[in-house]
Amino acid sequence: MDAAVRLVALLIEASRASEAVPHARMSVAAAPGRVDVWKGLGSALAATGRVNEAVDAFVEARAIAPDDPEVLMDLGTAYLASGDTKSAELQLRGVVKRWPELAQAHNNLGVALLRNRRHAAAISALQQAIALEGEFVAAVANLGDVYREMGLWEIACLSYEQALALQEDVAVVHRGIAACRAQQGKPGEAETHLQRALELEPGDAQALAGLAWLYTSGRGERPREAVTYARMAVELAPADRRVDYLTVLAEAQVNEGDAAGAVATLKRALAEDPSAAHIQRRISQLEGAKSSR
Q1: What is the DSSP code string of 201-270?
Q2: What angle in degrees, to the nearest 10, is found between the helix axes of 137-149 and 103-115?
Q3: Confidence class for position 291, pLDDT limits 50, 70, 90
Q4: What does the CA dihedral 216, 217, 219, 225 come to, rounded to 10 degrees?
């Protein structure tokens, strides 16, 4: 059984997680009382994008080892990837309370807090992660994300530049630099950084949405590619980001000349978030423009 667990870990490390899943399932069936087999299954499922199943696996691991910080952090991270940001925040708060020395837990909590629009708390958590691990590249870049969402572009760009100086091959860093370059009116540089983010993380929904937006606005001469990237972003998006990416898709469809398709997309978004007044306004604008022709 130890050999099977090691094989799963090696396959995941070699970016062959889809091959790891059946081995992990066999390990679980053979030894359902071992926490490491459930951790392996959860990690393999998460690496293949099956995050809801990964949550279930890590819940099983927690039932076996409720005091294992790695298991508890993995569960919180899986909740975050699934779009269940409230459960992620609750889970990760428990981890940092019991193990305040874990920089990664503070970082992941910071991301959950950002996704829950709790900016001040997110800054505090990410600063704590950086204090524990001085060159924590992802935490520095995530801090930039918080400042960017707050509209503090100058501070955000400084954070991203700092992260890039620490390490070049991190997708979140290139996404952040791309946002800065777009804000600065440099769409070519923004495109380069978004493409680099996708090279590093081919399934990066945020980078895909960024390219879709860029090809709709800053480099709007590429409407078909904008729609393609936006559709991919919607398909890969966690639940809490899907509405945002649906609106990106709608604008890409407008740019391509498909106003009817854009209205249908926005109605999908409105069905998921009925309180989104800005989406209803955009639907009314598009339908009004159609009726006036």
Answers
A1: -TT-HHHHHHHHHHHHTTTTT-HHHHHHHHHHHHHH--GGGHHHHHHHHHHHHHHHT-HHHHHHHHHHHH
A2: 20
A3: low
A4: -10
The per-residue b/e assignment along 165-181, b for 16 or more CB within 10 angstroms, e otherwise, is ebeeebbbbbbbbbbbb
- Tens digits of residue pLDDT in 154-201: 999 999 999 999 999 999 999 999 999 999 999 999 999 999 999 998
16: three-class secondary structure by DSSP: coil
Q: Which among 71, 77, 2 is positioned nearest to 39, based on CA atoms?
A: 71
pTM of the shown model: 0.81
Q: Which domains does the chain have, with CATH numbers?
A: 1-66 (1.25.40.10), 203-293 (1.25.40.10)
- In angstroms, rounded to a whole number, what is the distance separating the alpha carbons of residues 169 and 199? 10
Q: Kind and range of the H or E element at 156?
A: helix 153-166
Contact 19, 11 (CB under 8 A): yes
- Count CA within 13 A, CB hemisphere, residue 5: 13
> Please, are residues 202 and 48 in contact by the beta-carbon 8 Å criterion?
no
Residues with Cβ within 8 Å of 176's Cβ and at least 6 positions away in sequence, in order, are 141, 144, 145, 148, 156, 157, 159, 160, 163
Q: Which string of DSSP letters, residue by residue, matches 37-91?
A: HHHHHHHHHHHTT-HHHHHHHHHHHHHH-TT-HHHHHHHHHHHHHHT-HHHHHHH
Q: Collapsing DSSP states into helix, strand and coil, what is residue 3?
A: helix
Specify the long-range contacts of residues 256-259, CB closer than 8 Å, at least 24 apart.
Answer: 256/223, 256/224, 256/226, 256/227, 257/223, 258/227, 259/286, 259/289, 259/290
Read off the tokens for 41: 């299954």
56-61 LR contacts (CB < 8 Å, sep 24+): 57/28, 61/35
